[in-house]
Write a structure and sequence with these properties.
Blueprint (H helix, E strand, L loop, with lengths): L1 H27 L41 H13 L1 H21 L5 E13 L11 E16 L4 H68 L4 H16 L1 H18 L30 H4 L1 H22 L4 E12 L11 E10 L7 H68 L4 H35 L16
Antiparallel strand pairs: 1-2, 2-3, 3-4
Helix pairs in contact: 2-4, 3-4, 4-5, 4-6, 4-8, 4-10, 5-10, 8-9, 9-10
């Protein structure tokens, strides 16, 4: 036995050396393990942020409550529970988890059992009758196992890529939820603005009809011309014609809200109210570096990049040999009663190594494909980060400027209403030109409609800022649990 091992050790050493040389030769043809640089530019603060906002208290996760609208809050909660886009995203999480389980199966041995019973008849000599010959039985019961040794980490890298893809699906669910919440808020604000514009238009229509009645009275008395009468009639008709398009906007946005909360539009109603009843909360953006953790789309792009890194590792490991271990054991006997006798037991053990030599450049092409996808997701991540910073800046600017415009436009409406009231009073006294009255009417009507539009833009800017900031700030202690 000693001489046997002395003879076997050099041979085994030569086989190991040859195997190592083959591996080193293969690895020399494969690109290195370097990872691409992120090269992210993270600003120290937002240009449009107010001084001190970085250290101010951050909003709550339920950011929509800051608008102080019970109906909006109810719609948001219903959307979180019943929205079908969110339900689809949750189903995709289930699929991604299952795919991770499929990828992880390669890291575990496969085990299968078998049982077989045979009865055979073999004819002997020249006998062709059914009764001639030999009849015998064969019984077997076996267990087989196989395992692929993940020496190069291919299966582990594939599992890690699938796990990162499952994380991507979780962040995708957060992206869908945030988009849904912002869409609900924006659609609700559109409903309120349409209701405001309908009220303003009807109020302006009533004022124009009052002026028309007065001009008709003056026309009958000979103090107003047909031109004056026709111009006012055109203005009344214009105001009346402006109502149906606004009602279309109101009805369509109400139907859109119904879909967002998974309700049939025919059975769904919105009470609404006015944009003046909606409070705009103070929103502090915090530090730009925090946005990398707050924005679910940025985290999603980061997880997608991580998944592509593991896919590259798996594609690289595919160049190396595959080692597979197999084994079977069981019992085999011609008599059932002696199936489990010591002499019926058998086993086999085998080890195999498979090395790709030429596959039509399949592995090389798969590796290049994985590297290309890695580069794609790297650029997508960079763009997601820069887009996130830009979204916050644009929303901050919009909220600031629309807040200023709302104050200035309110002054325009107040002055225009005063001018119209004075013109109407003077018209009744016959001391003003009808052209002046017509101009003051049109100025007031335009100013009031513009004020509604500005208020809507302000609310949309606030909603966009919440969305740009990730819809709320996840506490540091629960950040890891948010993707479980």
């Amino acid at each position: 036995m000693l001489n046997f091992w002395k003879l076997q050790k050099p041979a085994r050493f030569l086989r190991v050396a040859a195997f190592g040389g083959l591996s080193l030769g293969l690895s020399g043809c494969i690109p290195g393990l370097e990872k691409p640089e992120l090269s992210l530019e993270v600003p120290a603060s937002y240009r449009a942020a107010a001084k001190g906002d970085a250290d101010a208290a951050v909003p709550a996760l339920a950011w929509w409550r800051g608008f102080r609208s019970p109906e909006l809050t109810g719609l948001m909660e219903s959307a979180q529970l019943y929205n079908l886009d969110i339900a689809v995203a949750i189903a995709q999480i289930v699929q991604a988890d299952a795919q991770a389980g499929v990828s992880g199966a390669a890291l575990l041995p496969s085990l299968s059992g078998s049982a077989n019973a045979e009865r055979q008849h073999v004819a002997t000599g020249s006998s062709s009758s059914l009764g001639g010959g030999t009849t015998f039985s064969q019984f077997s019961l076996g267990l087989s196992a196989s395992y692929i040794v993940d020496f190069w980490g291919k299966n582990r890298a594939t599992l890690s890529a699938s796990e990162e893809s499952a994380t991507v699906s979780r962040y995708n669910r957060e992206v869908v939820a945030l988009t849904t919440m912002a869409t609900v808020a924006n659609t609700y604000f559109q409903v309120l603005a349409a209701q405001d514009q309908i009220k303003v238009t009807r109020r302006n229509l009533a004022a124009a009809e009052r002026i028309l009645a007065l001009i008709k009275s003056q026309f009958a008395g000979g103090t107003a011309s047909q031109l004056d009468l026709s111009q006012q009639e055109a203005l009344v008709a214009t105001q009346r014609a402006a109502i149906p398009p606004l009602e279309v906007t109101l009805g369509q946005n109400t139907a859109a809200l119904a879909v967002l909360v998974a309700r049939a539009p025919a059975d769904f109603n919105v009470r609404g109210g006015s944009t003046t009843q909606i409070a705009v909360p103070r929103i502090t953006p915090g530090m730009p570096s925090e946005l990398l953790y707050q924005r679910p789309d940025v985290r999603q792009a980061e997880a997608q990049l991580a998944s592509s890194n593991f896919s590259v590792d798996a594609a690289r490991a595919a160049f190396f040999p595959q080692i597979q271990l197999t084994g079977t054991t069981g019992f085999q006997s011609a008599a059932l009663v002696s199936l489990f006798a010591p002499g019926a037991w058998y086993y086999t053990l085998a080890a195999g190594l498979t090395q790709p030599l030429f596959d039509g450049f399949l592995l090389e092409s798969q590796f290049k494909l994985a590297k290309g996808q890695q580069l794609q997701y790297l650029q997508a991540y960079r763009k997601a980060v820069l887009s996130a910073f830009a979204d916050v800046e644009k929303a901050l600017i919009a909220l600031q400027k629309y807040t200023l415009q709302e104050r200035l436009q309110s002054e325009v409406v107040a002055a225009s209403r005063k001018a119209f009231e004075v013109a109407e009073t003077q018209l009744r006294g016959g001391t003003v030109n009808l052209i002046t009255v017509l101009q003051t009417q049109q100025t007031l009507f335009t100013a009031e409609n513009n004020l509604v539009t500005v208020r809507l833009n302000k609310l949309l800017a606030a909603s966009s800022l919440f969305q740009a900031l990730g819809g709320g700030w996840t506490p540091a202690g629960t950040l890891a649990a948010a993707v479980q």
